[in-house]
Specification:
CATH class: Alpha Beta
Number of domains: 1
Number of helices: 9
Helix content: 25-40%
Number of strands: 10
Strand order of the largest sheet: 1-2-4-3-5-6-9-10
Strand content: 15-25%
Shape: globular
CATH superfamily: Alpha/Beta hydrolase fold, catalytic domain
Structural class: alpha/beta
Distance between the termini: 39 Å
Order of helices and strands: EEEHEHEHEEHHHHEEEHH
CATH topology: Rossmann fold
Length: about 270
């Protein structure tokens, strides 16, 4: 399915809902990260969609969504605007929001001015500030192309000691489908720190992360939950890389316990 934004861009989305048909389930919006698509949530959906209505969409320029040109403002704020317009046009009054890597950064940015819309916020391996590493990535893509950037970074994303080699190749191939100007444009514009603004977001928040990355290039992303008054974290020991992709089923089960626990609290 496609949803048209005000500037004419169409975003692809899909809905999975395997809840009991006589119930009215809460909605979960899943926001993927840079150079990825809705497909990256494949391991989460079977766990969550039995209990929630799950909406996955592809970011502008990625997956099956339309690709804007190099002149587009590929920034954290512009992607946040896309998210806001998407949930508005989907007529989502209140929902759970799950984001991974930059998708989590966008989700946190969204929460600053829209916390009243969120039942919960979950981020996975998501930075709250951006440093010179991102400009270095933009320079590499401009100089050598998207494929070199993907191969250069894939080793810190998926732990080869845990995941199937075929999964690593599929994952890399998915990322390589993203136009170079989309990724380079965002990486070149990635700067600043949204952390100070998160202290006023009262939304129940969960941060999921591995114990380590092979290269710690995302700043103190494990401290994101400490910035929220109602934040909590789950660190997966013995895992290196992007835990949301390395261990999707355990992550989904942790999220399910978190979300259902919120309902229990509201009933007491």
């Amino acid at each position: 399915m496609k949803l048209r934004l005000e500037d004419g861009t169409e975003l692809f989305y899909t809905i999975d809902d395997f809840t009991d048909p006589w119930t009215e389930p809460e909605t979960v919006v899943m926001h993927h990260g840079m150079a990825k698509s809705h497909k990256m949530w494949f391991g989460w959906v079977p766990i969550i969609a039995r209990h929630y209505r799950v909406i996955r969409f592809d970011m502008r320029g990625m997956g099956l969504s339309d690709v804007s040109g190099p002149e587009h403002a590929w920034t954290l704020d512009s992607f946040t605007d896309d998210l806001k317009e998407f949930v508005d046009k989907m007529e989502l009054e209140r929902f759970h929001l799950i984001g991974e890597t930059v998708g989590g950064s966008i989700s946190m940015n969204f929460s600053i001015n829209n916390q009243d819309r969120l039942k919960s916020l979950t981020v996975c391996t998501s930075p709250t500030n951006f440093d010179s590493h991102h400009q270095e990535s933009a320079d590499l893509i401009e100089r050598e192309g998207i494929n070199v950037w993907v191969e250069d970074s894939i080793g810190r994303r998926l732990d080869p000691q845990i995941v199937d080699p075929a999964y690593i190749r599929w994952y890399a191939d998915q990322m390589k489908k993203t136009p170079a100007h989309v990724v380079a444009g965002f990486q070149a514009n990635a700067r600043g720190d949204i952390g100070p603004a998160l202290k006023n977001v009262q939304t129940p928040m969960l941060m999921l992360a591995a114990a380590s990355l092979r290269e710690e290039v995302l700043g103190d992303f494990r401290g994101a939950s400490d910035l929220f008054p109602n934040g909590q974290k789950v660190i997966f020991p013995g895992v290196q890389g992007f835990v949301q992709h390395i261990m999707p089923v355990p992550c989904a089960r942790v999220w399910l316990d978190f979300a259902q626990g919120l309902n229990t609290l509201s009933d007491t």
